[in-house]
Every structure is written in C-alpha cells, then in structure tokens.
Design brief:
Protein name: TRAPP complex subunit trs31
Pfam families: TRAPP (PF04051)
Strand order of the largest sheet: 1-2-4-3
CATH topology of the domain at 73-129 and 140-250: Muramoyl-pentapeptide Carboxypeptidase, domain 2
Distance between the termini: 86 Å
Radius of gyration: 30 Å
Number of strands: 4
Subcellular location: Endoplasmic reticulum; Golgi apparatus
CATH superfamily of the domain at 73-129 and 140-250: Trafficking protein particle complex subunit 3
Strand content: 5-15%
Helix content: 40-55%
Region (Disordered): 24-53
Shape: globular
Structural class: alpha+beta
CATH architecture of the domain at 73-129 and 140-250: 2-Layer Sandwich
Family: Belongs to the TRAPP small subunits family. BET3 subfamily.
Number of helices: 6
Largest sheet: 4 strands, antiparallel
Order of helices and strands: HHHHEEHEEH
Length: 254
C-alpha cells in the first residue's frame, strides 16, 4: 500500500471516530437530531377475578422458605424411577453392571445434594429461627453417618432410616437399614434376578456424600427381606482404611 493510500485510510478512520465521539459527547451540536425512545409503560393491572376464585402465583415467585416442606408425589417419583430402571436395563448385560449404573446415577445426585443441604440449612434453619453458625467440617465418622441416616434420608424420603449399625465381623463396615425403601415399592424383581437391588441408586447418593465430606467409602445396596419386612434394604458402607486410621488418631470410639 502506498503512503497516499495509507494516509487516506488513516484520515477516514479518524473522521469516523470523531463523528462517533460527537454522538456520545454531551456537548454535541444543537442542530443534530436526537432520537428519543419512550419508556415502556407500567404493566397493566390484571383484571379482577370472579368471586370465589383465587389467583395462583408461578413456582418461581414463591419464596424458598415456604416451599421447603413441599413433597413430590409418590406416583411421579415412582414413574421417574421406573423409567430410570427401564433405561438402564436396556443397556446392561448383568446384575453387577445394572447396579453399577444405578449407583453412578445416584452418585451424581449425591454430589449436588452435598452442596444444597448445608446451604438451605444455613439460610433457613429447621430447628431455630436464628441463623446457625456456618457449617464446619466433620472429622469424626459417627457424626457423618448420623447425618446420612437422619438429615440426608429425611430430606430424600421424608423420614430417617430405620437403623444404623456397625458390623460385628468387620470394623470397617457399617449398615443403614431401610425396612421399606420408597423407591423400590413399585419394583418387582423377577426370580432370575433375585440378587438385584434397585436401592443401588440410594447407595450411590450415600457414597457421593461420604466421599465429598472426606470419608471415602465403598457403598452398596443389598436386599435383605424378612417375614416382617419383605422389602427391607441394607445400605452397606465399607469405609477406607485411611478413615479408620484417622478415627483411631482422634480417639476411636471414646
């Protein structure tokens, strides 16, 4: 490009910039025409409702604290879980793979619950009108298992689990018992798949919570029916050796 061409391009850019600056400058020429845009008018008032009817608000307009105790329909929950089971069944070739996939889905849910529950409890505490102190990290094993047994389970199913026990054979195994797991009420396992436990979804949730709080464990679900509770499910928690070593350093069960 010649010097004459470069000079003309520079003059064109400068002139364009000066014209753009004059539009933004408050000291623009009074002869220039300024376009004005009318402000949007206020939202018109909604027409009055007939006598006996009440206007309902959208779910997004409701405060979080008032919807805390809302429950999901058991039918909707069962339908969703049935679709999850059917979707998974078409993509596996064995019971172990079936349970593993359900556990992976539950793990994703548990990772999100771990962030949601402390935040909701901090903003809207259940047991007190005063704001509780910020959540602190739990270093002991029993408090976190109690948290899973009570707080987490109550948030998911509206009630705590039926039991929390420690294995008498292995010191690294704990069991959370559910005599009638809600998500398995509408599931009929065929005889050829009697070893299958669809509670693996819940086991994945529990495993994600324990891993996220610093208690890495291997969590599995097992169907343990009894004459009194034919749908009893046991969530077996096998904690990592590092967790037991830390527990012993902190004082064990004292």
């Amino acid at each position: 490009m010649s010097s004459r061409d470069s000079g003309s391009v520079r003059d064109s850019v400068l002139s364009s910039t000066s014209r753009f600056s004059s539009l933004l400058s408050p000291a623009a020429n009074s002869t220039s025409h300024t376009s004005t845009f009318p402000l949007p008018s206020a939202t018109p008032a909604l027409p009055p409702l007939p006598p006996g009817q009440r206007r309902t608000s959208a779910i997004y307009d409701r405060p979080l604290v008032k919807s805390r105790g809302a429950e999901v329909s058991l039918g909707a929950w069962a339908f969703l879980f049935a679709e999850i089971v059917q979707y998974t069944q078409k993509r596996v070739s064995g019971i172990s793979e079936f349970e593993k996939r359900l556990s992976i889905l539950g793990y994703r849910v548990g990772a999100r619950l771990l962030e949601l529950l402390p935040l909701r409890d901090y903003i809207y505490p259940v047991s007190s009108l005063r704001s509780p102190p910020p959540p602190s990290r739990t270093l002991r094993l029993l408090p976190i298992l109690t948290y899973v047994h009570s707080t987490l389970y109550r948030y998911l199913f509206g009630r705590p689990a039926d039991s929390l026990e420690r294995s008498t054979d292995n010191d690294d195994e704990y069991m959370i018992g559910d005599d009638d797991m809600i998500i398995t009420r509408g599931v009929e396992v065929p005889k050829e798949m009697s070893d299958l436990s669809c509670g693996a979804l819940v086991a994945g949730i529990v495993e994600a919570v324990l891993d996220g709080t610093g208690f890495p464990s291997r969590v599995t679900a097992h169907s343990v029916p009894s004459p009194e509770h034919p749908r009893r499910t046991v969530i077996l928690i096998k904690v990592n050796p590092d967790v037991l070593a830390r527990e012993a350093a902190l004082g064990g069960g004292k």
